[in-house]
Amino acid sequence: MAKIFFFLDTRNKKSDTFPLVQRVSHQRKRKDIKTPYIVSPNLWNEKGRKFKSSFPNSVRANAFLTDRMKAADDVLIECESFLKSMSVEQLASLIEDKIEEYANKKIGNKVRHKINNITRLYEYGKIVIKRYREAKRFGMADAIEDAIRMVVTFNGGEDPLITEIDETFLENLEAYYLNKGNSLNGLGVRLRSIRRVFNLVIKDANTELKQEHYPFGKNGYSIKQQRTKKRAVGLDVIEKIQQLDYPEGSSLWHHKNYFLFNFYMRGMNFMDMAYLKVGAIKKGRLQYKRRKTKRGNNVREFDILIPNEIKKILRFYTSEKSKGDLVFPILQDVIHTESEERIHEVYSSRLRNHNRRLKTISKELELDTNLTTYVARHTFATAGIRKGVSKAQVGDMLGHTNYYTTEAYFADFENAVLDEAADKIFS
């Protein structure tokens, strides 16, 4: 028997608010249908599966849940005679179609075109997200989805009209976001995704949005950015990491190797490592294209001499493998069996796990700075500058496609050099 209910997805233990999903359970499998709500547990009645009265616009929000459950119940009745032969994915898909059908009926197709200001952020965002997923740009799709959920949460869980998102709305959103202890740069990342949605919706002739509704830019809200301190460790720390003696094949042994490979291969991106194939190794060199820029005009191609420090690591991981095999086991269990979207989900999970393992190594070495993939990259860059390599050369090795990205890497380094020079003057 199929079961359908609402619940908070509390898997992200670091958050204090959680997505509300409509779970479809059938044939001992489950499929979650997303809703636009992000909810604090103290505003959710788990037993009654509804919002508490203290939740903003709780009457409207609970009516939304009622409509969703009615759509699901109608699908179960319509499919009762052949429900046993359906998969959970098929059932969930029919429920989503029914939800959309009811939403259209509620407004009415004829009336819809006569009403001004009907385009809502979450509803239109689903179109954009779907488009990016179909183009296999999963990182962009995830970023836009995350940004939209932030805005909906700020708006009391209600999907806002895009025309309501003006400069004042964004200023209030900024205050809300920063008051929760979040960073200005984190807000900037999300608002750039919202800006992307605005650019697309204004170009869409099927919406009521015009350029005058654009809240960003010269005469609107300016997305702020705060210089982040580039974290790097000394080369003495790299030596200590090399000397760590973990059992071969253990989890920490693998993650130690990934970090060292990341550093010695010119701060190589972890995604490039995860997808790196044995065939990229040719006559003592590594030749590959950076995945991050593969869809842009400036596709970065690398041809790197493999340093002696990691030849042993590569020999271990490439032993008895063919050219088409992945060098590292990061994605080897899913690369040939799962969809690209699922592979991206697994990659994101394993990147987080890699940084958690590096944090364990940091504690063992009693470091002030937690090791991460970015630390490996910044350490390589800083070491290069300290040894007299030009900024342009270091930027090229890192795969930067413009001067300003490279400059941002070294701003804090130059401040440190000036501080040291001042100390010499005063001493």
From TrEMBL:
InterPro entries: Arm-DNA-bind_5 (IPR035386), DNA_brk_join_enz (IPR011010), Integrase-like_cat_sf (IPR013762), Integrase_catalytic (IPR002104), Integrase_recombinase_N (IPR010998), SAM-like_dom (IPR025269), Tyrosine_recombinase_XerCD (IPR050090). Residues 6-91 form the Arm DNA-binding domain. Residues 267-412 form the Tyr recombinase domain. Coiled coil: none annotated. Keywords: DNA recombination, DNA-binding. The keyword Repressor does not apply. It comes from the Bacteria. It holds the Pfam family Phage_int_SAM_5. SUPFAM superfamilies: DNA breaking-rejoining enzymes (SSF56349). The keyword Repeat does not apply. Residues 121-214 form the Phage integrase SAM-like domain. Belongs to the 'phage' integrase family. This is Phage integrase SAM-like domain-containing protein. It comes from Aquimarina gracilis.
